[in-house]
Amino acid sequence: MLSTMQDVPLTVTRILTHGMTIHGKSQVTTWTGEPEPHRRSFADIGARASQLAHALRDELGVDGDQRVATLMWNNAEHVEAYLAIPSMGAVLHTLNLRLPAEQLVWIVNHADDKVVLANGSLLPLLAPLLPHLPSVEHVVVSGPGDRSVLDGLAPTVHEYEELIAGRPTSYAWPELDERRAAAMCYTSGTTGDPKGVVYSHRSIYLHSMQVNMAESMGLTDKDTTLVVVPQFHVNAWGLPHATFMTGVNMLMPDRFLQPAPLAEMIERERPTHAAAVPTIWQGLLAEVTAKPRDLSSMASVTIGGAACPPSLMEAYDKLGVRLCHAWGMTETSPLGTMSNPPAGLTDEQEWPYRITQGRFPAGVEARLVGPGGEHLPWDGESAGELEVRGAWIAGAYYGGADGEDLRPEDKFSEDGWLKTGDVGVISTDGYLTLTDRAKDVIKSGGEWISSVDLENALMAHPDVAEAAVVAVPDEKWGERPLATVVLKEGATADYAALRTFLAQSVAKWQLPERWTVIPAVPKTSVGKFDKKVIRRQYADGELDITQL
Amino acid sequence: MLSTMQDVPLTVTRILTHGMTIHGKSQVTTWTGEPEPHRRSFADIGARASQLAHALRDELGVDGDQRVATLMWNNAEHVEAYLAIPSMGAVLHTLNLRLPAEQLVWIVNHADDKVVLANGSLLPLLAPLLPHLPSVEHVVVSGPGDRSVLDGLAPTVHEYEELIAGRPTSYAWPELDERRAAAMCYTSGTTGDPKGVVYSHRSIYLHSMQVNMAESMGLTDKDTTLVVVPQFHVNAWGLPHATFMTGVNMLMPDRFLQPAPLAEMIERERPTHAAAVPTIWQGLLAEVTAKPRDLSSMASVTIGGAACPPSLMEAYDKLGVRLCHAWGMTETSPLGTMSNPPAGLTDEQEWPYRITQGRFPAGVEARLVGPGGEHLPWDGESAGELEVRGAWIAGAYYGGADGEDLRPEDKFSEDGWLKTGDVGVISTDGYLTLTDRAKDVIKSGGEWISSVDLENALMAHPDVAEAAVVAVPDEKWGERPLATVVLKEGATADYAALRTFLAQSVAKWQLPERWTVIPAVPKTSVGKFDKKVIRRQYADGELDITQL
Q1: A407 and A517 share a domain?
Q2: Percent of chain A having pLDDT more than 90?
Q3: Which has the minimum average pLDDT: A349-363, A460-474, B354-368, B387-401?
Q4: Which molecular function term from Gene Ontology is one that the record holds (chains A, B) (predicted)?
């Protein structure tokens, strides 16, 4: 028996047409560095999105599901691209301007991008890539910046404002299948080629609803959100679409991501909400500690991308700003969890919940999978790899124009769940606490040893400056932990003493047998421990190992 | 280009499994009339929903998409039915206990219900119908009430608690197509047979998300909602499913719908939200005026089903309780609009928005259609019939087991939109104000005349106690208004004076030519003007008409 309900697709088009009419007065405010920021109403954004679609179709020949890339900061024009490109049936491809040049070239070629919309200030980054991007036929430039850097390097170059000027402010948007591709974003794994996640109209629409649910960010047209998280990072955590759905005003920092202008825009524009990674909040805290600013308009802040140090949360609590943990990844659109505590608790009782990654919404099913593939209980103790399932969770990666979608075994389970690569525990009331990356966990005799637990315990010793623990092959146990230690100035290596010290906080079977001192822990470009370097050094016999 | 997202269906099953785990501690509190209400956790509700599904399948043989009806008050067992029946693949059919017996019989036969779950207190209503319900094989009874009234009338009778006891507390729920039927509800039109709306898993899931969005009811597990609107009225406005999705505690009045117990349950249980029709709030106001009670826990109240008198809103404002208008109907799941004012307004500026029906969410597209079928602008002045479209809006009525779905012309447009039968205007910022039922509007020479406007203007005259204006056929204009007036004690009919009085507030071409005095305006069983009686009396020549 089928229902008698209408079969109406969930599309970005609907978000666009709704936002520009019912919430036509809401605004996107873009920071300019000038005395006054730039303000544009949702009604105007909608009209200009139509103009952009006409320009892309009629002038640049974008058709079908061709890819249109953006290399842009967070600003009003980028929001227009977010709405126009999927609504016309094409695919928005946001390029991460922090990636190395060779990865950007690989990604643009893999996506087969036809057009790149770029901000003028980013042309020095784009220009040297263009000779290596044969699919790109047009570059469309908006915002300040010297255009001449493109001379001789680019295909056809257009000024955004000139390109859209005078075109019709409405568009006969096609009725699209909700499972059609709307946007794509590549993950930049440290190993192998980047992998493309292709979001559908349906996934973006559902994710937008979830973001606006009271249990998540819960924003309305009475709110203004400061969108610091870049639009090239998982669609700015879904905010540009979610805000257009309910008329939430957007405050966009453009290229002014430094603590001083952020502090100024918060004090002047008084956003009620903000979203950014911990590093931003660290920097802002230092700024307002040196030069006090009123941040109190921000009732809530969504913080994700990395675990937030509890001390940072406490510091912001004192400023009247509540940081709320969220967990997600490119493959999860990204909203996976948010750490709103349950009801009826005191501030003190809420604390243990606030420092978790949070709870899953109904749209995200979760399970923990142990070292043997078994499903683990939610008891707050059993640690396993987190696998998730849902309508805004990736089930594959884009295989390129001629390829099948990719479903690598280490990323997707046989029954289609996403393997997040994160290891953690889930409490009986559904709160997730992540402890390790799966690749950093030591699989020893069918049990898992947390490298992070060992590192934290080691770094509590007065002689230890830094410590990194990695898995190394072991004939008997499969894997065993190798402890690499950076000693403090003047300290000498006493592995037996360190081992005894460790034994106070971890189980005996988890204690490392292999020890070495290194001058510094190798780090990635974003400052994380680069454990694959240590594993390679060990495999190549470059480390001087002491066996206890 | 297809997306790489997982293809996960949106189902009631997911609402059930999510609510019973992540929000297992949330509660359904059912009023009992005893010193202590009955409390049951979501975890227990979920376990019992599994037991109910096992009982329905294994003991009563419910299979496939068979219909299971409920004739129940709002209580924990009814919530269990809401979750178990759709999740097992069957269809929940809520029976409106206020309908006349012959309509209930027609509805049960049309839906071909196999099982009826009934509350003991409603058996006196059910028993006399049973001989006329050949499809009903089983009656399952819960709650207090004399079972003996079924003797000799019913097929197999089961005690709910005995039926589910000892069965497994988990169930291998099937993976269902999200467009599959989940629940059905019949509208009780004043003309013709009742019409069945069949909700899908998808429509219920999306509607639940919308209810929980901050712009709508915006509830979380920190809330308790007092669900006065019956579960047999459009799924209690979607609350039992929406609450389970985010862990909102439910306070269920069962059969205790009188003002005194409602006041007591509010004061004792301190719900943060409530949902009911205006009549309930009128009654409660009288109660707490006579015997003051603390209602202040209810930060917000959703009021719908009929327009709320502004005076009632003002009275509750003074009690610290904010009534918020919502508009919807059985065919719209029902959330169509909610009257949250836009941002940045004073209380006084908010008032004109609060008394509208409110704004549409992104999931509900709206248009106004004029007398000639033309689409009208949203200018706050052009009045047309409201038509809506969306994923939780009906596109047809159930045609019965062997019939095609019904798409009557007066209910659905050629392009599939629902004709709501409501006439109104929409402001430039998207706020809907309903003025008339389409069938009560007078279509005169290609223009519409609002019968409600004429009635309100007439009733402002000191001689007039009541007035009803109806359309009557007119050779020249198609239709013209007939004014029927009930005079106050001692007043005499002076139609010319009334016409002059009317001319002060309505356009000259709208003034009625036909007048009559009647002893009282005919009313429906729920107290609304029954204009079809007046139209029939006019057509039959029963009224003494004066032509001006």
Answers
A1: no
A2: 87
A3: A460-474
A4: ligase activity
Q: What is the domain count for chain B?
A: 3
Q: Which of these three, A415, A439, A463, is where a domain ends?
A: A439
Is the CB of B18 inside 8 Å of chain A's CB atoms? Answer: yes
Instruction: Name the token pair of A385.
Output: 């790899």
Q: Is B331 a catalytic residue?
A: yes
| Residue A351 falls inside a structural domain | no
Q: Are B130 and B115 in contact (CB under 8 A)?
A: no
Same domain, A43 and A76: yes
Whole-angstrom distance, CA of residue A448 vs CA of residue A438: 10
Indicate if B443 belongs to the active site.
yes
Taking an 8 Å cut-off on Cβ atoms, the answer to whether A359 and B418 are in contact is: no
Do the domain assignments include residue B412? yes
Peptide bond into B473 cis (omega under 30): no
Q: Are B531 and B479 contained in the same domain?
A: yes
Using a CB–CB cutoff of 8 Å, tell me whether B302 touches chain A.
no
Active-site position among A439, A443, A447, A513: A443
Predicted confidence at residue B32, as pLDDT, reads 97
Contact between chains at B2 and A199 (C-beta distance less than 8 A): no
* pTM as predicted: 0.93
Amino acid identity of residue B24, one-letter, is G
- Calculate mean pLDDT across residues B316-325: 95
Same domain, A445 and A410: no
Phi, psi of A42 (to 5 degrees): -60, -35
**d(C-alpha B403, C-alpha B107), whole Å:** 15
Give me the catalytic one of B443, B466, B477, B532: B443
| Residues of chain A with C-beta less than 8 angstroms from the C-beta of B393 | 5-6, 8
Q: From the candidates B287, B331, B387, B455, which is the catalytic residue?
A: B331
Angle at A387 between CA A385 and CA A391, to 5 degrees: 165
Q: How far is B213 from chain A (nearest CA, A)?
A: 4
Give SS3 for B490.
Answer: coil
For residue B121, being part of any structural domain is answered with: yes
Q: Which residues pair with B187 in a beta bridge?
A: B195
Question: Nearest-CA neighbor of B231 among B398, B70, B90?
Answer: B70
Mutate one of B18, B25, B213 to test the A interface: name it (highest A CB count within 10 A): B213
| Cβ atoms within 10 Å of A278's Cβ, excluding its own | 18
Per-residue pLDDT of B411-432, as tens digits, reads 999 999 999 999 999 999 999 9
Residue B299 placed within a domain = no
Cβ contacts (< 8 Å) between A359 and chain B: which residues?
22
Strand-pairing partners, residue A536, are none
Q: Let me know whether A505 and A415 are in one domain.
A: no
B421 in the same domain as B445: no
Condensed to tens digits (0 to 9), the pLDDT of residues B228-273 reads 999 999 999 999 999 999 999 999 999 999 999 999 999 999 999 9
**Active-site option among A106, A137, A169, A187:** A187
